[in-house]
Design brief:
heterodimer, A: alpha+beta, Rossmann fold, OB fold (Dihydrolipoamide Acetyltransferase, E2P), 5-stranded antiparallel β-sheet, 19 strands, 26% helix, B: 276 residues, mainly alpha, MetI-like fold, globular, binds adenosine-5'-triphosphate, binds magnesium ion, transmembrane (chain B), membrane (chain B), cell membrane (chain B), Mannitol ABC transporter permease (chain B)
């Protein structure tokens, strides 16, 4: 079991209020991703849940029990650090066995569990090596192995993949997702990469300056962003924002249109502009179109058509998928449900 | 890219290094040579470099007059004992300063260092009186206590510097893995800091071994370590250079050997963190 409840949690370092007031309800077995720009307090929030930082106010409950002041060792959570934080003086085997040893598990049970974890994570051949003799991906697996052997109430990951190269990152992303499906244990995963967030999460917490901007499923965030910040943060390439008289036409302070929601034409359309840069990815092409009054607008189109730089194109937003925002950035109701 | 050094420069530096080394080592070498001379040769002027007859007589005389091994044993007890107690106090102290510092941590470190700036003579009378009243004069445990106190600031400073090099993530990982404070220190911090702890231990054993002010002032016969043993040859019966040299050689030999065998460890520990 592993439900996690934050009730009006706040955290200040000295005079600096890093997290003003957060309440969250994370269900047992959920995969929740904390996403947000650098410095928004993701790691701090995770460390508060872990018990590595003390809260300034509010309560943290695990499975309904108040753990606000419990030390990390008593919370029954496992954490995977960005730096892996393996014990350099121990072999891979001892690293994975360490939490079990701390819990005074009998030797034969330890051997059995370490063996099982090693098989699950393909670490059998490395068990007697020291961490320094492993590659980044292998170290990350050891860190995960160390977390799973003790069967924690929940896993906490702090940007675990950011030190890996792009290809390995995609692999590990899949492995962690599979692990979650297999174990069905609550996982909280911190990242600033919105693609990781979208692909892995059951629900995403979008954080900005220590505040929860929105908490919902990936598709909810994509389809119904609560405000301009979430709209701009979720989705790749980023949503285009249009202010001024062009937004006023839609009865809004500003509007947003995703690159994939423009109709592209060589003949006619709502906006007209010249292609500044065409990024061809094969399957897709991203056009950065210089539109008068609006500046650069990004449009996503199929990879089959080719466009010249400087070519004139016409853009028409899909009327069902125009996001409207008020002056303070709150989303106004929009066409698409 | 390797920097190219002209061969002449290299030779010049090598000669210079040997010269400096020789100057530093000369007094010790001279004492060792003198210890094998006769008393008349030892004070001969102009000085005789090598003894005309190598004699062990001085060593027998020294051993006959006072028991070298008793003092040697006292030195071992006091230097190793004070260092171990110091480490026992210093490791947790340095842990808290390195990994959970407060606003005052820097001040405390400075304050501890400042006690080393005070001349020892300044407190010799009060400490002597305290020792007299508590019947600690001329006792091994009394001396161990004083040397622990004297070297504790250095121990804590050294450990603090080494601990600062250890990524706090790893200690936090241990906490998440269910380690209580003492297990975190014993199973994770100490093994990772072994090079630093070993050099702290070695350096402090050496410092305590060579400490002469308190060991001479607070002991008489019973607890006297080798420093007091040497000084007992220097004063009363006039000048016996050869015997004094023999006593000195005997006193410094163990620590010289220790330093020699552990020099790799010492150099590594003292420059630890200088190059990452
Ligand atoms: N120990 C600390 N003392 C003072 N300020 C801190 C401390 N730890 C974090 N902060 C501040 O709290 C804010 C949030 O930091 P945090 O590490 O949680 O950000 P983050 O969202 O994890 O960022 P990143 O994506 O860069 O890891 C930052 O402004 C940071 O400077
Ligand atoms: Mg962070």
């Amino acid at each position: 079991m592993g439900s996690i409840t934050l009730d009006h949690v706040n955290k200040a370092f000295g005079d600096v209020q890093v997290i003003p007031d957060i309440s969250l309800d994370i269900k047992d077995g959920e995969f929740v991703v904390f996403v947000g720009p650098s410095g928004c307090g993701k790691s701090t929030l995770l460390r508060l849940i872990a018990g590595l930082e003390d809260t300034t106010g509010g309560t943290i409950k695990l499975d309904g029990a108040d753990m606000t002041n419990a030390p990390p060792a008593k919370r029954g959570l496992a954490m995977v650090f960005q730096s892996y934080a393996l014990y350099p003086h121990m072999s891979v085997r001892d690293n994975i066995a360490f939490p079990l040893k701390m819990a005074n598990t009998p030797k034969d049970v330890i051997a059995q569990k370490v063996d099982y974890a090693a098989r699950t994570l393909n670490l059998n051949d490395y068990l007697d090596r020291r961490p320094r003799a492993l590659s980044g991906g292998q170290r990350q697996r050891v860190a995960i192995g160390r977390a799973i052997v003790r069967e924690p109430k929940a896993f906490l990951f702090d940007e675990p993949l950011s030190n890996l190269d792009a290809a390995l990152r995609v692999n590990m992303r899949l492995e962690i997702t599979e692990l979650h499906q297999q174990l069905k244990t609550t996982m909280i995963y911190v990242t600033h990469d919105q693609v990781e967030a979208m692909t892995m999460a059951d629900r995403i917490v979008v954080l900005n300056a220590g505040k929860v901007e929105q908490f919902g499923t990936p598709l909810e965030l994509y389809r119904k962003p609560a405000n301009r910040f979430v709209a701009g943060f979720i989705g790749s390439p980023k949503m285009n924002f249009i202010d001024g008289q062009d937004a006023a036409r839609y009865d809004a302070h500003s509007i947003g249109v995703r690159p994939e929601h423009f109709q592209l034409s060589r003949e006619s359309g709502t906006f007209t502009g010249k292609v500044a840069v065409a990024e061809q990815l094969g399957a897709d092409t991203f056009l950065h179109v210089n539109v008068e009054r609006l500046g650069l607008i990004t449009v996503r189109t199929g990879g089959d058509e080719t466009f010249e730089n400087g070519e004139t194109v016409h853009l028409t937003p899909d009327p069902q998928r125009i996001y409207r925002f008020s002056a303070d950035g709150t989303a106004l109701s929009h066409g698409q449900a | 890219m390797a920097r190219s050094v002209r061969p002449q420069t290299k030779i010049a530096f090598t000669v210079l290094a040997w010269l400096v080394g020789l100057i530093l080592f000369f007094p010790i070498l001279w004492a060792i040579l003198t210890s094998f001379k006769t008393e008349s040769e030892a004070i001969a002027s102009p000085p005789v470099v090598l003894p005309s007859v190598w004699t062990l007589e001085n060593y027998f005389d020294v051993q006959a007059r006072s028991d070298y091994f008793k003092h040697f044993f006292n030195s071992v007890l006091i230097s190793v004992g004070s260092t171990l107690i110091g480490l026992f106090i210093g490791v947790p102290a340095a842990w808290s300063m390195a990994f959970s510092p407060t606003k005052r941590t820097k001040d405390i470190l400075m304050w501890m260092l400042s006690t080393k700036m005070m001349p020892a003579v300044g407190v010799v009378v009060p400490i002597y009186l305290l020792f007299r009243d508590w019947q600690l004069l001329d006792t091994v445990h009394g001396l161990t206590f004083v040397l622990t106190m004297i070297n504790l600031p250095i121990i804590i400073w050294m450990l603090y510097t080494y601990f600062r090099e250890i990524p706090v993530d790893i200690l936090e990982a241990a906490r998440m893995d269910g380690a209580e404070l003492w297990k975190e220190i014993v199973y994770v911090l100490v093994p990772m800091a072994i090079p630093g702890i070993a050099s702290t231990l070695l350096l402090n054993v050496i410092l305590a071994w060579n400490e002469a002010f308190w060991t001479i002032n607070l002991t008489a016969a019973q607890a006297a370590p080798l420093t007091a043993f040497i000084s007992s040859f220097s004063s009363p019966q006039g000048l016996f250079w050869a015997k004094l040299s023999a006593a000195s050689t005997l006193a410094i030999a163990p620590i010289l050997l220790l330093g020699w065998f552990s020099q790799k460890q010492l150099v590594r520990g003292l420059t630890f963190g200088a190059v990452k």
